[in-house]
Amino acid sequence: MSQQQVKHRTMTQLILGAILTVFLPPISVIAQESQALENDELSVLDEITVTARRVEESLQKIPISVSAFQGDQLEALNITTVGDTAWYTPNFTTITGPTGQNDAFFFIRGIGQADLNAATDPGVGTYVDGVYLGRVVGASLETLDLKMIEILRGPQGTLFGRNSTSGAVNITTADPAEELSGGFIFATGERDLIRAKGTISIPLSDTLGVVIAGLYRNQDGWGPSVFNDNIFDSVDDTVGRIKFLWQPNDQFVARLGADVTRARGTSQSQLLVGVNTAGASPFGVPIPAGIAEDISTDPFENRSSTLNPRYDIDSWGTNLTMEWDLGDIAFKSITAYREMDQDVTSDFDASRYDFYQSLISTRQDQLSQEFQLTGSSGKLNWLLGAYYFDEDAYHNNSISLGGNNGCLPVPPFVIPPGNMYPSCFVTGQQYATPFGGRVLTNNQQFDLSVEAWALFGHLSYQINDTWSISAGLRWTDEKKTQRYNYFIDNLSGVASFAGFPPIILWTLSPNNPNINVPTTYSKSWSDLSPKLSVVYQANEDVMLYTSFAEGFRSGGFNGRVQPNQMGQFPIVQSYDPETNMTFEAGWKSMLAEDRVRLNGAVFWSQYQDIQLLVLDAESGFFSNQNAAEAEISGVELEFQARPVPQLDLIASLAYLHAEYTKLAPGTEASGITLDSHLPGAPKWSASFGAAYTFELGDNGSLVLRGDYSYRDKVYFNAVNGPLEGGDSFGLLNARLTYFTPSENLNVALYVLNATDKVYVTNGQDVIAALGVAFNAVGAPRTWGVELTYNFGQ
Q1: How far apart are CA 336 and CA 319, in angstroms?
Q2: Could you tell me which residues come within 8 angstroms of residue 541 by beta carbon, excluding any fewer than 6 positions away?
Q3: 8 Å CB contact between 717 and 739
Q4: What is the percent of the chain with per-residue pLDDT over 70, rounded to a whole number?
């Protein structure tokens, strides 16, 4: 090592040592004391290999801010869905939508999406074995047989591309093992929990292997209705996965996988927290005067009685990945097809009245094909790729906007598909009443077709032993076609429309003979997303980097088109893509003889043409608009240490400053101002965990683990309603695990939310337009017992 390298290494260690002393003084002292011990008495941290740049690389060598969770770590942290990783990841937030925990309402660095409407694309891309998932529905997968979950922060517009404006969630499933192996986990606990998960890997021949995995999870929710036997927030999931690996020689390998999910839980428990009894629905149906009696006084009691809480998802997919090693060049093909069906009911007025309820149905299928060509020539490594994505989706949001006080028997009517309410004809007063009144529903149906093409490339050049540079570029072209079929179901006679009898009133629909605007719209968008990074390898343990990256989220047409003041539908206007340009500087470091990993980053983003879900207070309809521009900056730190063989420590800290710098004309009328906070953007978030192993000699070992996560106040919508209720909170989890001497059998006792903290996971304050405000809360303290057995590993 040269004197110059020694000097750089000494200076770098001094700087990072100072950071440790400031942020984590007890940890740095432990690490310094541990250096005095013999190497053979200490355990070093395992190397983490990720695929954040589409090839396998060490986490410590890539100029990207990445958090990685490996298979065994997921169980230790009690992570059951991909979204649970947010509790331990800097600047990664997940919000539960009306459907509960299986949908990927993810936010990274304050950018994401919390809208279930299929016309809106996610801001955080989710990928499984290289396959992009086109909708947020069901994308927060159960953690079944996963090798790795990577959270990539910052725009991933070059290598991942589709709708990864703020980052990407990259999930890799496990390959078949070379020997017969497997295991199972069985858990039981509070709220009648039953969780069973099993995996078996079978070598079918010297060149062919298969891994089969299955999971069943059933647990009652924490939102029982006070009026009937309904329990909200329940889970009933069945998941299966199979994966074949065929490698006839050293030059070729093929992976064929398939998965299926069947979820039959109940929708999220909503709690009424505010009401305007003088208000009315957008169609003039008055809010029931007695609804104020249902304002929540107990966060774990649901006061809905008129809705059957239903959450159904059926999804399946298959993918084929083939890789050819041609020496200095390698070729990869990823072919995938997926289908998804979802039906979910929600009671947004959270009361005993038939007022503000919805049935959301989504049907989606997608076909994708990606080609990658990688190679190296001396100091140059490169990757070229092409991508194709084709999607068809049907979406229906059937939402009730008022009810009446009873029904009289009438001959049956023909009800359009997707309408969950039986029909009846009444002549009573036009206001909502409890227990069984019928409703007026607005049905927003559309069919969406998406076709996307992309070409991309990435180059890395090693200038010398310490400096390297990389650059990437992605060209994308997308076309969307959206066909509308809106209608109002007034078969119950709740409202009066210009003397019409109780009928199906076609609005923005080809069935409307008087429609004077198109009902089918089509538009294309293209984008060029660059990425550039410079890396300085100070020594074998410390890497510094700076980067610039850009990402974009596709434009589209609104899925909630609103009429004008005359009740007529205007020509549907599209909204444009949004873009995010981010400058980032960071470091990756291994200290104390590989017993301390400390990674960090600072960033600044210019977020333009932001797609916000804006509520029109006069019409009562939401619409997606390019409503604002913003600047986002922040700091992220991740720490992992093993100061002594028995002790493992993890910690993370994140600071996020996000502010609007410009609003589009008319945006302030919706209630959004320059002082508003971006949705899903807590200012501070942090986590800390410790696990200590007590050796019991010939009797095995005992591991005691505690994990604490903190999240600052967060807003759930663009208009920061005062009754959304997302105040700051912290959660504490604890786990005690006994390992037998062979370590293939263990029994664990765990407690989640040990302090029984009441915290809000979602909310909406729409008193001005719809007369109500509601919140949803997370799970109370929950305990469980878990038995794990592994063999052949």
Answers
A1: 4
A2: 9, 589, 590, 591, 594
A3: no
A4: 86
